[in-house]
Amino acid sequence: MFFSIIIPLYNRPVEIKELLVSLTQQRYSNFEVIIVEDGSSKPAEDIVARFKGQLDVHYYYKENEGQGFARNYGFERAKGDYFIVFDSDILVPADYLDHVLKGLQRDGWDAFGGPDAAHASFTAVQKAISYSMTSPFTTGGIRGNKKHVGQFHPRSFNLGISRQVWEKTRGFKLSRRSEDIEFSIRMINAGFKVGLIPEAFVYHKRRANFSQFYQQTYQFGKGRIDIYKMYPSELKPVHALPAVFVIGLVALLMINVINLLTMNEIQLFNALGWLGNAFLGLYTFLLFLHALFVCKNLGVAILAVIAAYTQLIAYGSGFLSQYATLILSNKNNKKLTV
User: Fold this and answer.
1) How many CB atoms lie within 10 A of CB 183?
2) pLDDT score of 335
3) pTM of the model
4) What is the C-alpha to C-alpha distance for residues 143 and 291, in angstroms, rounded to an integer?
5) What whole-number distance in Å separates Cα of residue 127 and Cα of residue 133?
6) What is the spatial distance between Cα 284 and Cα 205, in angstroms, rounded to a whole number?
7) Rounded CA gap, 256 and 286, in Å?
8) What pLDDT, in 10s, does the model give residues 93-135?
9) Which of 226, 243, 115 is CA-nearest to residue 178?
10) 3-class DSSP state for residue 31?
């Protein structure tokens, strides 16, 4: 089986070099690599050219349109039986393609996704963010894995489709923000067999600091409402939990301020404050213990708590903002039409 690996690239010359190095170590060698530079101001053509003798690699530069359309550009030029999409900020284990091949032969997926993990070389913040993005204590519990709520939707940092899927769907319809969820839903609705290959994981760097992480997950929250506008049945109560968390935090802060100003004289607010603070404290403690168990590092576990709060607040805030914009105000967004 011949694989085409498509990687959209935007101003990440260092990351693409590390990714390509990891691809040179693949045990299964029947693949090509297609790099689509999406209008970068820091192009990586010279870096990619260094791998010509080690990989069957092809480099293309196009105007910036977003990662979804950059992937389509790569699909149009791919020769493989299956197209595999990676984000540029990942590292690929040497046995990745072996696991993909075995998974496809075992389960017969038309399209698949794989999980992600933190590499030993990642910074403490990157490891903390990786924990938060995969934790059952955060939105990681409603993302792509076997146990998450509803139908599994592959994510574009580690996604594969057959040539038949591409020919029927023509790839991504959205250029950015939740474009992978929309694509997954459309593949499933078209009758294709879509699932997870749990052994086919990648090491995903994600964001380098909490500010970038906040901005990213804020967009994820907005994207969930975008998907709801296109596919109303895809919005489940569990998707609103981060928004409920944000509303609860704001309410608890107000209650605590009132209790402080009134010296706890209002019995109802006093009781609500005690219950709210106890619940939040218990949640934080359990989150920390789980992070410590998973990460096996005290410093990373502490940062993981910060990452989890950052993720929940950002996702919930984005969800509420887009809900108010598109639902409460009944605003029509033509860009979301499929």
Assistant:
1) 25
2) 47
3) 0.87
4) 18
5) 10
6) 24
7) 22
8) 999 999 999 999 999 999 999 999 999 999 999 999 999 998 9
9) 226
10) strand
Reported confidence tier of residue 142, pLDDT bands at 50, 70, 90: low
Determine the 3-state secondary structure of 61 from DSSP.
Answer: strand
> Contact at 8 Å (CB) between 67 and 175?
yes
How do the domains of the chain map onto residue ranges? 3-114+154-208, 233-331
Q: What is the pLDDT of residue 143?
A: 52
**260-266-271-274 Cα dihedral, nearest 10 degrees:** 10
Structure tokens at 190: 């078209």
CATH number, domain 3-114+154-208: 3.90.550.10
The rounded distance, in Å, linking the Cα atoms of 103 and 132 is 27
Can you count the helices (H) and strands (E) in the chain? 11, 10
Q: What tens digit of pLDDT does each residue of 75-95 get?
A: 999 999 999 999 999 999 999
Per-residue tokens: 76:
């149009």
Segment among 200-204, 218-222, 261-265, 325-329 with least mean pLDDT: 325-329
Query: Which amino acid type is present at position 310?
Result: T
Show the CA angle centred on residue 159, arms to residues 109 and 136, nearest 5°. Answer: 100
